[in-house]
Amino acid sequence: MNDDLKSLGQMPPPKPSPAARAHALSLAMQAFDASENNSRVPQGTAGARRQSSIFNRLWSPVMNRKLLAGSALATLLVVPAAAFLTLELTRQGLPVVTGGQQVEVAGHIASKDAEAKKMAPSKPKADSSAETLAAESNAPAQPSGALADQVDEKAVAEPAQQKAEFDAAGQTRRTQSAAPPAAIATQSMIGGSSAEIMPSPAPFDTVSQPDENGDRFTSVDANPVKSVATDPVSTFSADVDTASYSFVRKSLMAGQMPDPDSVRVEEMINYFPYDWQGPDSKDAPFKATVTVLPTPWNANTRLMHVGIKGYDVAPAKAPRANLVFLIDVSGSMDEPDKLPLLKSAFRLLVEKLRPEDTVSIVTYAGNAGTVLTPTAIKDKAKILSAIDTLQPGGSTAGAQGLEAAYDLAQQAFVKGGVNRVMLATDGDFNVGPSSDEELKATIEAKRKSGIFLSVLGFGRGNYNDALMQTLAQNGNGTAAYIDTLAEAQKSLVEEAGSSLFPIAKDVKFQVEFNPQQIAEYRLIGYETRALKREDFNNDKVDAGDIGSGHRVTAIYEITPKGSPAVLNDDLRYGAAPAGQTDAKPSGELAFLKIRYKQPDSDTSKLITTPVTEANAVPALEQAQPDVRFSIAVAAFGQKLRGTDAVSAYTYGSILDLASGAKGEDGYGYRAEFLNLVRLAKSLSGE
Fold first, then answer.
1. What is the pLDDT of residue 312?
2. Which residues are 209's β-sheet partners?
3. Which residue among 164, 179, 211 closes a domain?
4. CATH number of 646's domain
5. Which pLDDT does position 450 carry in this prediction?
6. How many structural domains is the chain composed of?
7. Whether residue 369 is found in the same domain as residue 466
8. Taking Cα atoms as reference points, which of 440, 356, 375, 372 lies closest to residue 405?
9. If DSSP states are collapsed to H, E and C, what string results for 461-525?
């Protein structure tokens, strides 16, 4: 027995497998990235040493000796070291990285780190990429053992996520699909066997994974064709946001077709000013102009075009404004089209405001801070100086910033005036309550105090459009995307009245179609603004808000009774339900209802408009130019989304329609649109 043991002791150690070596190095490098790039205090700690110092003391001597890196001794040293590092990081409250995904450890939430982005080399180191090591050895780089054991219960319940990483220049993108910890295979280093715990199905989520640039949008299907016989009523909330159009423009100008989920057709239509006839007084703050005309992309259907114009408050009669600029100064904002553009945009707005208006400034990055307490515009130099001093750095404590901004708005509250928080960000909230639902609840609670919210989006790369839409829609506010200084001039200066001064809140639209005249209908756009039929008369249901002079346009594609374009068969058992009488024989095609509340009221009022053949024009060319141009924009938006209804309608046809309806174009918005259609035509290969 002793001789056998002596013989075994003199035998050389077995050569480690490439998979084992790559796996050990992968774990160690992931731990290194976690300690270096995700430390909550990257500049140092109270203990006068960096959080990663323990890693350096253990890892550097091993890595600096090439002999150990390729030997069995390396395996024996590295794996226990990785386990020890994980334990140490856990004790210090740092995030553990598993397969490219950050998970919560010791009550701390992982956050993005601007310092890491700035300090990252232009090219990844060959020996610091887990995927490179795995590829060389044909072994998957996935965590197991000590790292997998550190995953907490909350992380186990989280659904699969995807993390996008960019290099310092923002040009190289690597996407890692990080399986939930429950699905990670626990592999044995001896024998290579593995066992896998399958996760439960993830709940349905309408927020898509990041697109190829890392931006996030709400993914929804286009509105379907509905049968008037079974579903005669269409109900939706007003939407005066314009963010989608600006983002689409930025994509096309960058030589890329936009992500279909980024295209919200109603926001593209409502981007342009139209000369709809407005009301005579604020007592009835809206007036509807309805036009029925042939559909340019389908000879067998018609369009019902509804143009709404809000009462335009004269500047001299505009109420005092109490504005709080809530500005994201986190590390992700350190790009030319983000914080620098943001600062220039707010300078333009300050120049537009009146001497008696007040401005406050709150910033957030790691923690929220007050840069400027409520200050009258007559002290403009102080406000502009505060804007100029803003610098980026840190993670994004957006929820804390919202709380601080609303507190300041409440302190300077103007009774009967405009009280508004203006959030400017790339939309990436990752410290504190950051889920859409948590932030939605916060905003809903605050809006009851009479403080509205505007959201201004900037930049690309981690732009969270889905979250920004949630904030704006639930905060009695609007959302815009600022991609150029010219867009800032349009949104914050030229349209300041409609952006800042609300004339009505919770504005809802409902259209009932006459089944004797109309067989089917399809609402173009407004997918994220759909309401239930019963929501229309329920004053507790929140809806969109409209500002001074705002224009809202809605377009239905309707199929007349007996048209060959009808898609749904007649019902076999189509008798009217008990108690319901047949529709009155009349020339009405539909009946439009608008419900709204005054800004200081909780009780809604109703405006109604019947739609008849008197609203119709026999030919598309006979409709007024604004109607035709808005239809061209609607066709363009649908085309970009990939909507089947316009699949045969070419970009060239859209260009012809828009060119013939360009009309007066004082600011050049329509000429710019024509160029975007030309770009899309070229990029699509049409």
1. 86
2. none
3. 164
4. 2.60.40.1230
5. 85
6. 3
7. yes
8. 372
9. CCCEHHHHHHHHHHCCCEEEEECCHHHHHHHHHHCHHHHHCEEEEEEEEEEEECCCCEEEEEECC
- Please report the pLDDT score of residue 372 as a whole number: 95
What 3 state SS string does 19-78 have? HHHHHHHHHHHHHHHHHHHCCCCCCCCCCCCCCCHHHHHHHHHHHCCHHHHCCHHHHHHH
290 and 322 part of one domain: no
DSSP state of 619: S
Alpha carbons 500 and 388: distance in angstroms, whole number: 23
- Residue 120 covered by a domain: yes
Q: Work out the mean pLDDT of the chain and round it to a whole number.
A: 76
SS3 591: strand
Of 284-293, 317-326, 492-501, 554-563, the range with the highest mean pLDDT is 554-563
Q: What angle do CA 267, 268, 272 make, to 5 degrees?
A: 100
198 occurs within a structural domain: no
Percent of the chain scoring above 70 in pLDDT: 64
The pLDDT score that the predictor gives to residue 436 is 58
What pLDDT, on a 0 to 100 scale, did the predictor assign at position 118? Answer: 40
Of 400, 680, 678, 632, nearest to 524 (Cα)? 632
Q: What are phi and psi of 663, to 5 degrees?
A: 60, -155
Structure tokens at 193: 């066997």
Q: Is the Cα dihedral 277, 281, 286, 290 positive or negative?
A: negative
- Which residue range forms the structural domain that includes residue 630? 226-313+503-566+585-684
Q: Quick one: angle between helices 651-660 and 625-641, nearest 10?
A: 160
Q: What's the pLDDT score for residue 628?
A: 98
Classify residue 211: in a domain, yes or no.
Answer: no
